[in-house]
Amino acid sequence: MRDAQSNDALGGLPDWNLDDLYPSTDGVEITKDLAWLGEECPKFSVDYENKLADLDAAGLLGCITRYEAIKNIMGRIMSFAGLRYYQNTTDADRGKFMADMQGEITDLSTAMVFFSLEMNRIDDAQLEKMVKSNKDLARYKPILDNLRQMKPYQLSDELEKFLHDQSVVGATAWNRLFDETMAGLTFNVDGDELPLEATLNLLSDTDRATRETGMRALVEVFQKHLPLFARITNTLAKEKEIEDRWRGLP
After folding, report:
1. pTM
2. What Cα–Cα distance (Å) separates residue 233 from each residue in 166, 171, 176, 224, 238?
3. Once rounded to an integer, what is the mean pLDDT over residues 122-127?
4. Fold of the 12-155 domain
């Protein structure tokens, strides 16, 4: 087929270089960062849990900058794990590594769930006064304002921690099942077995017959997986409906 032949002529597709994040999954860099998180997350909780309301502007700034440093490392690890996984979602080792990192980061960050809850319990006037009195703290005002939009919809500390811990086996797990299923699909197009991306590319071909062939191949395979796709969609929708209802979201 013309599209398959043209893809072959292009040779191998470019691959992301993730070395700026981490050079490997078991190198000293990521091992060191995970160890640092293992020490810093509990220390952050000990230093600040049930104490945010008593901090002055300088103390609150110190708390926020420590929180930011922790979240930056967590984000770096999950960016590396996620991008590496999406390079090849059919690779079991990549999938396991991402799942392992999701589980570990979720466990570590449970100790920090209190931060947003206690931040939103600080009186509006008190927080505004601290922000105005400290120019370095004022840099974080847009983030604080965004955080406080969820103030009316917070649940109890126990429920928030429960939802946080459950997330790794909730929507995250269902999304991963969808990604892995889609990545493993192949489509018979005029005798050629094409992956999803190559088949989708046919839909933008200038030739109408090629577009129709690609669409028919997609429909044929997708129809066979409709029960699974429906289960995933309905489960995610119901999960969100339940959480929104408990939070009182409009």
Report:
1. 0.83
2. 18, 10, 13, 16, 9
3. 94
4. Butyryl-CoA Dehydrogenase, subunit A; domain 3 (1.20.140)
